[in-house]
TrEMBL record:
Residues 6-118 form the Acyl-CoA dehydrogenase/oxidase N-terminal domain. Belongs to the acyl-CoA dehydrogenase family. One of its GO terms (molecular function) is acyl-CoA dehydrogenase activity. The keyword Oxidoreductase applies. Residues 124-197 form the Acyl-CoA oxidase/dehydrogenase middle domain. It comes from the Bacteria. Its cofactor is FAD. This is Acyl-CoA dehydrogenase. InterPro entries: Acyl-CoA_Oxase/DH_mid-dom, Acyl-CoA_Oxase/DH_mid-dom_sf, AcylCo_DH-like_C, AcylCo_DH/oxidase_C, AcylCoA_DH/ox_N, AcylCoA_DH/ox_N_sf, AcylCoA_DH/oxidase_NM_dom_sf. Keywords: FAD, Flavoprotein, Oxidoreductase. CDD domains: ACAD (cd00567). The lineage of its organism: Bacteria, Bacillati, Actinomycetota, Actinomycetes, Frankiales. The keyword Metal-binding does not apply. Residues 228-374 form the Acyl-CoA dehydrogenase/oxidase C-terminal domain.
Length: 385
């Protein structure tokens, strides 16, 4: 596995960073935090249309660029660095990966071109009140055939919670239980029987919503009852995607801490010259670089569609989630009193660090998952007694 970036991927990083430095500075992030939508439609159109980010990993037949998950990871790392307020994770990772994974050609042709050009905002409505991403048995939303549509249509009833960008998405991919098992159904967000309420969250840079469905008209995607294996892979891809974003944020707060330690003078010398501060920053650097390696391993595993994706995803999510929270916390410690003020950006990264650590499974969950994989591997390779 070659973990070096190509010239094209390096140029993509430079282009995205330059764009986000102009369109997502701290002042703009704070402005968007106070808006109802939580993102700038003009910036999203530029990201999707001019830079082609929304269709980066989509096949060319659907209007995409046909690139891989490594390129998307480069974008997500830069997005995490700038605290980009945009529906990249919900639309580009969750929704698009779900549509592709279900293998419904008609649905892909109907929905993916709109995602690629930025005109369709989509999201996956999976979690319910418990907030569990991995609990297939806990899904209580139901789907039934619509008797008024001669059996061709469906209706969905139930409640979904913690839906990423659920208040602005125009296309909702809802996981519901049918007679055959768990299925994914597409629902127009403006359809009757759909009620969306924005959820108050700690991290105002990433919006969530609670959605109630009351016999909402829906379209079955893929094979009825066969959705969970597809969703498991989608969640692994999402874990890798968030890990890349976390690395970008962790590297940014490390840079903030180092810059402040160089310029903040105490007792007649920069605080970065004190051994305690130097050791703290060195430990942070080690943690961030270790997390970066785990995230990049996950990206290359996802790009190659390798069978050990679940292992790589859990490794990346566990390592990067903890590294980001540690880096964001220590950044505030290095800054001292100013680091806990509203005017300083340190708290914005700390909130994003904590919120992203919960997405798609806490690091403790992924460490348990890793342990199960290791034990299963040992049992499979053990010699008979």
């Amino acid at each position: 596995m070659n973990l070096a970036f190509t010239q094209e991927q390096t140029e993509l990083r430079r282009t995205v960073r330059d764009f986000l430095d102009k369109t997502s500075p701290e002042a703009e992030v704070r402005r968007l935090m106070e808006t109802a939508d939580g993102y700038d439609p003009d910036v999203w159109r530029q990201l999707a249309g001019e830079l082609g980010i929304a269709g980066l990993t989509l096949p060319e037949e659907y209007g995409g660029a046909g690139c891989g998950f490594v390129e998307l990871g480069v974008v997500l790392e830069e997005a995490g660095r700038s605290l980009l307020c945009a529906p990249v994770l919900s639309t580009v990772v969750l929704a698009a990966s779900t549509l592709l994974g279900l293998g419904d050609d008609a649905a892909c042709h109907d929905y993916l071109p709109g995602i690629a050009d930025g005109t369709t905002l989509a999201t996956l409505a999976l979690t319910e009140a418990a907030g569990r991403w991995d609990d297939a048995d806990g899904i209580t939303a139901t789907a039934a055939r619509d008797g008024q549509d001669q059996g061709r249509g469906w209706t969905v009833s139930g409640r979904k919670a913690f839906v990423l960008d659920g208040h602005t998405a125009s296309l909702l991919l809802v996981v519901a239980r049918t007679g055959a098992g768990l299925s994914v159904l597409a629902i127009d967000a403006g359809a009757p029987g759909v009620h969306r309420v924005p959820r108050a969250t700690l991290d105002q840079t990433r919006r969530q919503a609670d959605i109630t469905f009351t016999a909402a008209p829906a379209r079955l995607l893929g094979e009825e009852g066969a959705a969970w294996p597809v969703l498991e892979r989608v969640l692994d891809l999402a874990a890798v995607a968030v890990a890349a974003e976390q690395v970008g944020g962790a590297a940014r707060v490390l840079d903030m801490a180092v810059d402040y330690a160089r310029t903040r003078v105490q007792f007649g010398r920069p605080i970065g010259s004190f051994q305690a501060v130097k050791h703290k920053l060195a430990d942070l650097h080690l943690g961030v670089e270790s997390a970066r390696s785990a995230a990049y391993h996950g990206l290359w595993t996802a790009a190659g569609d390798l069978p050990d994706l679940p292992l790589a995803a859990s490794l990346a999510k566990a390592c990067c989630g903890d590294a980001y929270v540690t880096a964001a916390t220590e950044n505030i410690q290095v800054h001292g009193g100013i680091g806990v003020t509203w005017e300083h950006p340190a708290h914005l990264y700390l909130k994003r660090a904590h919120s992203s650590r919960q997405l798609f499974g806490h690091p403790a969950h992924h460490r348990q998952r890793l342990a199960r994989y290791v034990l299963a591997e040992q049992a499979a390779t053990a010699s008979p007694a």
